[in-house]
Amino acid sequence: MDINAKVFAAFQAENKEQLEAIRLIVRKGVDAGDGDFNEALRLAHTMKAGARVCGLDGIQELAHRLETLFAHIRDRKVELVGAATTVVNSALDVIEDSMVSVGAGNRPADPGQALIAIDRILNGRTSDPPKKGLRDGARQRVLAAFQSEQQEHLAGIRAILAKGTQGDGNLSELDLDEVFRLAHTLKGGARISGLQTIETLSHLAESVFARIKSGNLRLDPGVMEAITQAVNAIEDWMASLAANQTPAEPVKALDALGRLLGLEVDAGAAQTASPEVAPGAVPSVAVAPQFDTVRLNAEHLDRLLRSSGQLVTESLRQDQVSRALADLSANIDEIDREWESVREVSAAHLHRLSATPEFTRVLHYLEFVERQARIISKQARQLRALQQRSSRSVRVLGQELQENVRKARMIPAESVFGGFRKMVRDMARDENKKIEFTASGLDVQADRMVLQALKDPVMHMLRNSISHGMETADERKRSGKAELGSVTLQMEAVGNRLTILVDDDGRGLDLPRIAEVAVRRGMLSQADANARSPEELSSLIFQPGFSTAKAITDLSGRGMGLSVVYEAVSRLQGDVRAARKSGPGSCMTISVPLSISTHRLLLVSDEGQTFAIPSSGIQRLIRVKLTDVETVEGKPIIVWEGQSTPLVSLSQLLGIGGESDFTVEGKTLSIMILKSGNRRLAVAVDAFVAEREAIIKNLDGPVSGINILAGGIVLEDGSVSLVLNVGELIDSFKPIHASPTSRASGAKAEKKTPTVLVVDDSFTARTLEKSILEVHGYNVVVAIDGLEGLSKLRSEEIDLVISDVQMPRMDGLALLQEMKRDERFARLPVILVTSMNQIDDQERGLALGADAYLVKQRFDHQTLLETIKQLL
Q1: 116 burial class (0-12, 13-18, 19+ CB within 10 angstroms)?
Q2: 576 has which bridge partners?
Q3: In whole angstroms, what separates CA 29 from the centre of its chain?
Q4: Tens digits of per-residue pLDDT, 656-706?
């Protein structure tokens, strides 16, 4: 793939994220704040820069107009409602359509109408479009929107009600206004969606809050219980609709609210929805309305995933064929060159021999060989070119198939964990405990197999919180807590990781009890137990069979403990830990990959073998001089980011190397900083080989029971590389007396290749600059903003910095200022590259000490390279 193709692919991926992020902000409408609009403005600005780099003038102009529009919205010149929202969404659709067209090799969509519409908004010449009746597609979209909206409204009502359980039980006037507004908005959304039962419940709750506001009703425990029943009923009703099931009649909730208001509510009439949205006939609101759906056997999808992985592996194997063809072509060319040399030297002799009849046949044969050699040489070159094109096509198609299968496996967490709300309420009732359960982030999309594998572990953690952690209402009252306890399930996708948090405000972990059980079971000596930190003691609860329960119940205490959680998470290449809390209660955190369809792996070699390490477990890759390795009590360590980190070789961890030392090439160590929870370990290897996206396959036979092995992947040459479990690697570490030695300490030092740090929040710009620099022989390190750039400067040996100016968190000027304050970086050459062409910005950058200032609008590859060459 050439540089232009790489840059467009990078912009394509970045553009999808930018469009989605802007759409999320637009959905907030009037609820969005200045921070949201600043973020939307930055996203549009970055999109404009990426489009300019790719030469997509229409998208560049649209992004520029959107940037201006978001500035007007932020400055209160335009309100993000009605027509403005429609215009923004239409512009985003045109950009999305253009990217699809360009990717398919077609002309981009015409941005003319979208540009005119934005200009009309900017000039104040617009009005809201007239409302029309909802068609089926629109109704589906409304239902999907309400599904998301009602979760936020219910969470808001619960949060305000929780305040009422504290102190004197009274809510402030602002809280009452807000909870009334939430119920009113919920009623309006239900009416638009045609959900009459929810509309009735919301209307009654709104009436109750109105009476509380007027002083005609007091927010006592009875009122609180009635409102809670209504909130739970609405939540259960929507969960049933999402599962395409007929919801149960909320008789108790309707009766409870009716009694408070002195009304008789007909539950049957309330449940009867409008003819357009009848119970049991409502399509699942969790399904996107604009796509047709089919049922697919999950096993078939898994097989398709495995096949796509094998296709990608086979495409990589074609690289060997390509190299073999290249060698063959080179050998034929060498024969041709050698014959040319022989013929030049022997031309006179061959001419004389041509007159001799007995040598005529020999000469004809030599001419035949010469012609055939040239034909074979030409055929070899053509075959090599054909094979390279086919190999690239197969690789791209295999990767595209793998990505499509991965997306097909992604489902919202709500589909697996949505029923946990009712489950927690039922468990709390069985335990005679008052618990407010909050679930957030259930709209996160993750691999179906990941979510299914986590369902039982998360359920076990919730059971643990309710049974072990939460006190009864009387116990909480005696300890000065609110009678209503809190249990939270929170999900968040960060990068390619899914984080699940289970938090409660109960008793918290009984560390003395944990230490007592550990000593009794022989896991720790009393001295070790006394010396362990709270984090180290907390980690013991995930050991097999560890349980502090004093009695066995149906809910918990079956002797299994939380080891089932640890084992399930480990199989997913994740980690689980008990996090520290500033307040009462406990907090468990799970971190796993969002998808198990493919894993990003680092291939390393050690002792002649190739191993694969999941990149999620690697905090940093560094090279350390042998002279920088220190010893503490005879044990090797390195100081990284100001902390002493134990150092060990991978071969020692695996038991395949020497017992007393580890050996490296040259004068530097290649080191992985591995992390699992709060634990870190520096692991030295012989070499970093490559990065791979691969499917991890299960190992069969005796090795399947070795915890340190997570599986295997097939390499291009057909061999199998073992995938190592980072958490188990760190657990297996036992400090040993060792010292690094050099295999070639006397070798002549090679000329150092300059390393350039590229700092830019645009993925497209980073890819372009990285590609240019690597093609011309530079090592390249990238960072997404100034803060990460500073971190890279402190951990890498950098020779020159190229930085964008406008970036989130820390911009390029602030980065330059921080560099000049630090003696280690003050003399490093800095090139500022930005789309801003203002003279004062350039003067400020140069005044701060920038060595050069390049404007993206006049960005020229050769100018950048010449500038770097002059500075280095």
Answers
A1: exposed
A2: 590
A3: 26
A4: 765 445 555 557 788 999 887 667 889 988 888 888 777 777 776 556 567
R_g of the chain computed on alpha carbons = 33
Please report, for residues 34, 181, 644, 798, the alpha-carbon distance to residue 204 in angstroms, rounded to integers and kept in the order given.
Answer: 35, 13, 62, 65
- Cβ–Cβ < 8 Å for 20, 777: no
Written as six digits, the tokens of 406 are: 């991965």
DSSP letter string over 519-563?
HHTTSS-HHHHHH--HHHHHGGGGSTT----SS--SSS-SS-TTH
Using the structure block, give the residue that is written with the tokens 């960060």.
494
The string of pLDDT tens digits covering residues 700-726 is: 655 656 777 877 887 766 677 888 888
Give the DSSP per-residue string, 342-374: HHHHHHHHHHHHTTSHHHHHHHHHHHHHHHHHH
Extract the residue ranges of the chain whose pLDDT is less than 50.
1-2, 125-135, 268-292, 551-560, 659-660, 737-738, 742-749
Interval 504-528: pLDDT, tens: 988 888 888 888 888 887 777 888 7
**What span, in angstroms and rounded, lies between the C-alpha atoms of 303 and 12?**
29
720 strand-pairing partners: 714
Return the SS3 of 377: helix
Give 466's DSSP letter. Answer: I
Amino acid letter, 159:
A
Strand partners, 868: none
pLDDT digits (tens, 9 = 90+) for 445-489: 888 888 888 888 898 889 888 888 888 888 888 888 888 888 999
Residues in Cβ contact with 701 at an 8 Å cutoff, skipping those fewer than 6 apart:
none
Q: Quick one: tokens of 444?
A: 């996160």
Q: Classify the C-alpha dihedral 426-432-436-437 as positive or negative.
A: negative
What's the per-residue H, E or C state across 784-831? Answer: CCHHHHHHHHHHCCCCEEEECCCCCCCCHHHHHHHHHHCCCCCCCCEE
